[in-house]
Every structure is written in C-alpha cells, then in structure tokens.
# Entry
Amino acid sequence: MHKLKARAAKALVRVNWKRFGVYGAAVVVGLLLLVQVFYPNDRLLPLARIDGLSVGGMTKRDATKVLNSAYQQHQAKIYMGVDTDPFVSPHLSDIDVAVDNAARVEAISYPVIMRLIPTSLFWVSLKRSAPPAPTFGAKFETFVDQSLMKECTKKPVDASLKATGTTLELVPAVPGGQCERADVLGALKTMRPVLGADTVIKVGQKVIQPSVADDMARAYGRTLTIRLASGVSLVTNSESFTLPAADVLSWLDYVVDGDSLVARVNADRAGSYLSGAVASKVAVKPGVSYITTVDFTETARINGASGQALDINGTVASIEHVVRGDADTASALTVSVPPTEQYTRSYSPTDAGLSALLANYAKDHTGTYGISLVELDGKKRRADSDGDKKFVTASTYKLFVAYSVLKRIDGGTRSWDTDADCFNKMISQSDNACAESLQTSLGGGSISKGAGTITKDINAIGLKNSNFTEAGGPFTTANDLALLLGMLQSGQNFSPTNRERLINAMLANAYRKGIPAGANGSVADKVGFMDGLLHDAAIVYSPSGTYVLVVMSNGSSWATIADFAKQIDTLRAQ
# Structure
C-alpha cells in the first residue's frame, strides 16, 4: 500500500512539470510574438546584413548612413586600354561619386504575416533590392580631365636593347593608346559599385603600335652582337689594340631613326673608358713658351713645342662608324695642345706699369678681382683692374653706414656721444649688430628705409655704382670704395673731427691679414668677408707716400692679398 502511494505521487509530479513546461513555453512564445508584432517598423531586424555589412538592430536612418559611408570608401579600379594593372584606384568620395541607399533601406519591411511566426525575428529573410546606381557630382568630370585624359593619349614605347656582358637583351615594346573624353565618361558612368566586390572599369583605347616592334629589335640585336663579337680594333699612331666587346656594347644608346632602331655610342661612358685606357698612349706633353714682358708689352718670346691629346669626341665618332658597319677599324684621333706659357714680367713705376701689375696679378691668381689704386701725394699715379666690377659689399658696407652717420653728426641731427660706442665697434670690430642698429636709425626705425637713405647719400657724392637697395646686394666696386677713402683722407665731405674719428677706428681694425700684412707703413682699413668674398679697403701711410688700395675678390685668400700689397709697395718705391 505504501509503495502504491509513492508511485502515484511521482506520477503527479511528472504531470505537474509537463504542465509547467507547456505553460512556460507558451509564455515565451507569447512574449516573442508580442515583441515581433510590436517590433519598430523603422528598425532593421537584429541579424540583418545588407551588401555583406552588419546593420542589425539599427534604425533605417542609421543603417543608411553606415551604408552610404561604406560606399564612399569603396574603391573603383580603373584600367586604361590594355593595361594589366589599374591606372588608378580612387575611393568613390575622391571622384565625387555617391551611392544613396536611403530608398532601398526604407523599402525593407517586416510583414505582419511573418511577425506572427514565432522566432521569425531571427531568421526571416527580408526582401532587399540591389544597390542603386551611383550619382556623379560636379567634381567627377574634373577628375576625368585632370587624372585620366593625360593617360588617354599614351605614346607607344619602341622596343630597344640593353647590354648584359656580351649579350644584348630585348627591352620589349609597349603599345600606346588614344581615347576620347566622351568614351571615358561613358565607361565610368556604367559602374555599379557593390560592397565586398571589385568595381572594375575598363576604358577602351585605340591601340597605337610602336615604330620598332620586338622582332625588329631582336634582329638588330643579333646583327650588332655578330658585328661586335670580337670587339673593336682601335688604331693609334704607333699601335693598335682591341676594345672589348662587353665594354663597347655597354656604351651603346638606342634611338629610333624613321622606323629603324639605331645604336649610338654614348660619349660620356665611352669617354670615361678612353681617358683611362687610351689617352696616355697618344698623349705628347706640350713644351713651354718663355715670354718676357714690360708692363703690357711683350719684349721677348721663345716658343715651346705643341703637344697632343686624345680627341675623345672624334674617337667616339670613329668607333660609331664601326658599330654602324661603315668601317672595320676605328682610329684614336688626336688634337693639338698648345705649349704652356711661362712669363717673366717687369713693370715700370708708371700708371701703365701699375695697371699692368694689377691686371696680371689678377690673371695669374685664383679667383675674380676688382682692384683700385690711387696715390694721394707724390707722383699721384692711378691704376685699376676691373675697378668698376660690382661685388657684394660684405662688411665694407659699414664704411658707407659710417659716412651717413657722420654726415648727420656734422649736420647737427645726431650726437657723437650717443653713436660713438657702436660706431667704433662697427668699424674696428666689424660688429654686425651695431651696423644694423645704426642703419635702422638712419631709416627712422626701418632698416630698409635706412638702406635707401645710405644709397642716396653715397650716390650724391659720386659713388654711382654702389647701391644698398638693389636685390641681392648691397653692392659696390673697388673704384667707389677708393673714391670714398680718397675723400676721407683729403677731408672732402668730412669735417676734420669726423675724418679723424673714422680714420682712427680704421687704424684700430682687428682684422689685419690682408693689405696691412703686406704693405710697408701704417694702414687704416676696413675688411669684408662672407662665403668666398674677401675684400680690403685701405689707406696706406707708407714711407714713399700715402695711397688708397682697394682689393675686392671672390675665391682669393688673405695671403694672396697681402702679397699683392707687398708687390704694389715695392713697385711704387722705385
């Protein structure tokens, strides 16, 4: 009896659990149906994908934004003519092409009949349309004109050859192409982009065949290889030897002459080889011509023998005749080399002699020069060599700043007590900050206006070739600096007090490697140096009289300028 009751109790529990399970399932299904029935019409289903892009649970507005943005980043691969690689692969946004998915997303619906099917929320396939055709904005045609139309006319590339040792390898021809703008626009406007798939656009081109096809270049290569297989025999005055085939082939460039490929010998590559291997075999060292001059006049000459050197261009042309098949051997041609000249020069202590010394010194030394010499007493001789040649002033411009400052001190509009410290630093130590400060003050607070003021001042006293305002300057000449220093020493345009102030500052110049190192006597000077420029403008108080010497140079040295000053002093003392 007891066992019977226990079995009945277990059966009752099983029945209750089944009933609970049925009721629970019904509740879940009911809730799910309730969710499905009332699922928002403006929101996509939880597991929805469009064009491979997950948009589940998004509002239709947000899904449209996501899709449109993805299409903006989609790439279009554009091929031109027969090219096997895309010419460009721009994003749609780069070429002002847009795909608007708003209508197709809005058309997606979750039908009532499907809402009544349990779990359809997760598995139902919603009806979707293909991506719409793109729209083309105002910048699309600009892209076509600027990026594609240049490629539309593509010149063909003729077949050619390149040397690998003693072998000539083919460089294949590349066909060209031609297309019309309307055809390019039409081809691009057929595009139908789809996310997850390549968008390929092929722009058709009318093929333009090259003048030299591969088979023509191969045939020419075989001809050259046979012709040059043993190298090129080069005959000199006394011997002949063979230029190796590999070297000759490496010198060849190829050009199209009409419809044929023609080899030309590259003068640079061949010349480099010939200079090293052949030039010494034909070279004859020239002799020396000994020439004696007094001032500018030649008084004696012993002529040396001419030499000879390899004529690179002529020899290259001779080798090219062999390459073309017009000759069997080439000649190492030569050119005459004149003898070198060795001068013994002497100078008279005259204007002509001093001028000759200046000119010949500039000629015989490295660099370019502008030189001016003016004796202020004694014989009062003058000489110059390129004295009116313009140079950038470097720090000699500070002499012009000094003149404009002293002019105003003499006129009572400036005070020496205020300017003295900076003035002396500018001249004696070549202090740039002081020079710029004084120039700025001359322009009423503007350094550029100060440049105009100084130019006007120095032009007014005859320094016509000096200019602070010309682009790339300031500029001056040796003759202009000599004129200013001559006026300073003689007291023209300077009061006695201010003359003494500037000369004393120049006597205290800290840079003494140029004229002061070579001249005999005390020297008041102002130097300028910048990049390759070396200038020295000096008043020399020598035992044989006072004179002005200005040397402006580019590419010289202080030692050269000092030696020149020494030679000037020696000749003047005669």
Summary: The chain has three domains: 73-99+134-161+173-213, 228-341, 351-572. The CA atoms of residues 518 and 562 lie 4 Å apart.
